[in-house]
Amino acid sequence: MIVFDLVCAHGHRFEGWFASGDAFDEQQGRKLVRCPVCDEERVERLPSARVNARAGKARKKKTAKDEAVAGLPAEMLAQLREVVKKTEDVGERFPEEARKIHYNESPQRAIRGRATKEDAEALKDEGIEFQTLPPFLTGESH
Quick check: 16 and 44 in contact, CB under 8 A? Predict the structure, then answer.
């Protein structure tokens, strides 16, 4: 496992864990490496002086304190993830379901899912409010 210091085009700094440098390059080429704060796909590696001196030794189990992401305290991150868990994942049907809720064709409820950039723009044009969730809240991998 290798840890890279990364930065998005908007200046958000974060870490990415990859099986190898090649794995990072492959995932970045497929636009799977995204900023956990703003979901920007233009991400670059930063120079890093980090050395894994414990390679091959047993690693310490991560605690909630170790999990802080994007500058958020671990407790706040856990609370945000709990809120997201209480939403209904409608997957690729997100644009359709968001419209049904907006036009009162379906009951009001909290949903999440996926939309293409074109679908997201169309929803905005219709006045349908939504927010893009960063992958670190939804548990989806980069």
Answer: no
